Amino acid sequence: MRFFSVKYFWILLILPLIIVFFIYAYKDVRKKLKLFYGDLYERLIPKNTFPLLRLRIVVSLLVIVFIIFALARPQLGYKWIDRGNINSDVILALDMSTSMLAEDVYPNRLEYAKREILDFLSVVSGDRVGLIVFAGYPYLVCPLTTDYASLRSYVNDIDINMLSSVGTAFDKMIMKAADSFDLESTASKTLIIFSDGEDHSQNALSVASDVAKYGIKICSIPIGSEKGALIPIEKGTFKKDKNGEAVVTKVNINILEDIADVSGGVVEIPSNENFDMQRFYTEVVRGEDIGTKFFVSKVRIWNERYRWFLLPAIILLFIEFFFDGLVNFFFRDKNKIFLLFLLLIFFTPSFGNCAD
Length: 356
Known about the structure:
Blueprint: E1 2-3, H1 15-37, H2 41-44, H3 49-71, E2 74-84, E3 88-95, H4 109-123, E4 128-134, E5 138-145, H5 148-157, H6 170-180, E6 188-195, H7 204-212, E7 216-222, E8 229-230, E9 248-249, H8 253-263, H9 277-285, E10 295-304, H10 307-321, H11 323-330, H12 337-347
Helix pairs in contact: 1-3, 3-10, 4-5, 6-7, 7-8
């Protein structure tokens, strides 16, 4: 096993200080209780009070240790993937504003856009891909990675309720995407926006022009139709304006084209008959001809095993949070200690499954 982010192990240096603090607090409480109760101490304070307190301290320390090990990104086992002859970094930005619930494309704009992203992930190979969702504010769901299986899982789990912010701010999303690229890398950098083009920000074009100076080109795949559709809010109801009129949302290709123009990108309309995701990826994203030989080397990708430490930390946090209740339930009755032992065995993650 190896650890990708060993810098987090520096946090372990504070553990001795925490232990010293706990020991001091433990002794101080015990001393004060003896002074306060005097001769009644032995009769009023249960004998198991301080052993249980020590156990609770140990549980808390174990939680800290497990979390630190999880943050250090333990890796065990690896797989080989094909690496292209031209490296590309791609950030996919998915619009999560309420207008994406419009049903002018089947079944609605959001689900249609998710299908397009999954299509893109099915043709990409060897390049790093990241995922951002945005409305009024952007959120980085997944940083640049070649783990396409995890990306597909993230995309499938996306729901309109993930973001609480309203509106659509292209400028903030573009800045977030720029921060997510490795600007010192020699790989080409492409931001692909999946959106209906409704933008409530004022600085999208200037921001797009600024990030283009760092070699970031912005492409868009518009989602929706020019005819437009109502925006469903709840079953049988639709979004209305301040005058009580139902809002009709239409795809705005103009803003997407303007952003593409100032950054050297393109706009590809998925409803066009000649749209092909493989061609888009090869020619636009990678800047190659369709006939270019694609794979020239292989790269070893390590399997992330942080769950092996995160799951015990969560279990111990649960135990610590409900400590008093669990003690009363299990340890007051010796017959239930065996049940606790079985539960710990059942929920302990297996260490045997790893890719070689």
